[in-house]
Write a structure and sequence with these properties.
Number of helices: 3
CATH topology: Rossmann fold
Structural class: alpha/beta
Oligomer: single chain
Number of domains: 1
Low-confidence stretches: none
Strand content: 15-25%
Largest sheet: 4 strands, parallel
CATH architecture: 3-Layer(aba) Sandwich
Distance between the termini: 36 Å
Helix content: 25-40%
CATH superfamily: Response regulator
CATH class: Alpha Beta
Number of strands: 4
């Protein structure tokens, strides 16, 4: 099974995306911040990271840099999405 890590500080969006992916057979873990996401990554390397860009403390780009500094994180794909304000 493919493992996906969702990192987003928006609880509603994180929950919806997690539910959507789980319903399609993926193993999904989620984190509410970049720091929490990095901790989750180090415990169990996912096959894909889907991350918000704008988050407090550690944004998605900084998370990507930290992940890329590790050997297992050098090839893990990232999908970034920005916060959309309407």
């Amino acid at each position: 099974m493919q493992k996906i890590l969702i990192v987003d500080d928006d609880n509603t969006l994180r929950s919806a995306l997690t539910r959507y992916l789980k319903d399609r057979g993926f193993v999904v873990r989620s984190a509410a911040s970049g720091i929490e996401g990095l901790h989750s990554f180090t415990k169990d390397t996912p096959d894909l990271i889907v991350s918000d860009v704008v988050m407090p403390e550690m944004d998605g780009f900084e998370l990507c840099i930290k992940v890329r500094e590790t050997v297992p994180g050098q090839l893990v794909p990232f999908i970034f999405y920005p916060d959309v304000v309407i």
